[in-house]
Design goal:
4-stranded antiparallel beta sheet
Length: 301
């Protein structure tokens, strides 16, 4: 039964924990204050789950189609530019695994865990109106952010595959952005903390160590508000303990990706993104591709 439970944990991680490995360029870019953003996105995730090689788990595969609805606003916090956003994801997932000769599969749809994110630029990015922003030239920006994920997603305690995690998580992060002509270099480091899930596979208690991450982006401006980025991240930690039994599932994983932003007109833009696993010790090994549409209003536009 421990093997089957391990497979269940792995499937749940893929469907509901993908946001822990997000690659998001321009998090700390300066933005004119008073702007509002409505965001609609679609993403496709497909891949296996890397588990402890000593465990007889085979043919693990998960596919997720997801829609994201979000609202964001740029703010003035004590003369510094800041941003606030709330994200509500909905997903359709299917997964399967073979554990001790038993084939398990499930299809599920519903809301995933909602997220709230707040970031503030502490240095190099003053709060500016849209008119004043026309004369702004970036040099070095230092910022910080906090993301909170709530246990609001679909969750069945006795199922192998879930879209929600039935727990809270909090991720503080600090980042630095440096512009060099048409190129902007970004580096950010953070740590995600988790509360316990006391309804894991019934009435078991699942604890998880923090996951430490660092991500970097090389962003190139192509002019006319078009930009492209090469993205990378490394994250480690996240060992799980179930009812006091500690798993051998320390994560040490690397991902690479790319992002392309294209303006449609003054108010609308489209962003394309892709990422893939490069090296995976334990945890999720998957490919992600998607598209995001963004509509902005306010700020004197």
């Amino acid at each position: 039964m421990r093997i089957v439970r391990f497979a269940a944990a792995s499937l749940a991680v893929v469907a509901s924990g993908l946001h822990g490995q997000d690659l998001e360029p321009r998090t700390y870019a300066n933005t004119p204050i008073g702007l509002n953003f409505l965001i609609l996105g679609y993403g496709h995730t497909d891949g296996g789950v890397a588990t402890d090689s000593a465990l007889p788990i085979e043919n693990t595969q998960v596919e997720v189609h997801s829609a994201v609805f979000a609202y964001a606003r740029s703010l003035d916090i004590m003369g510094r530019s800041a941003k606030f956003d709330v994200v509500l994801p909905y997903a359709w997932a299917s997964g399967s695994a073979t554990a001790i000769g038993q084939f398990r599969e499930r299809d599920v749809s519903g809301f995933a865990d909602p997220r709230v994110h707040f970031s503030v630029n502490l240095y190099g990015a003053p709060a500016l109106s849209l008119e004043d922003f026309k004369n702004y030239q970036q040099d070095i920006i230092v910022g910080a952010s906090l993301e909170v994920t709530a246990p609001g997603g679909q969750y069945d305690a006795d199922k192998l595959l879930n879209l929600g995690t039935n727990r809270w998580s909090v991720k503080p992060e600090v980042g630095v952005s440096k512009r060099l002509g048409p190129v902007t270099l970004e580096l950010a480091g953070g740590v995600r903390f988790y509360t316990d899930n006391d309804e894991f596979l019934g009435n078991k208690v699942r604890e998880q160590d923090p996951i430490y991450s660092v991500q970097g982006h090389l962003i190139y401006s192509l002019g006319h508000n078009i930009w492209a980025a090469v993205d990378g991240t490394f994250y480690t930690g996240g060992r799980m303990t179930v009812d006091g039994v500690r798993n051998n599932d320390l994560q040490k994983n690397t991902r690479l990706g790319a992002t392309l932003a294209l303006p449609v007109n003054r108010y609308n833009s489209v962003k394309l993104y892709f990422s893939t696993g490069v090296s995976t010790r334990t945890g999720t090994d998957f490919d992600v591709a998607g598209i995001v549409w963004q509509y902005r209003f306010g700020g004197g536009l």
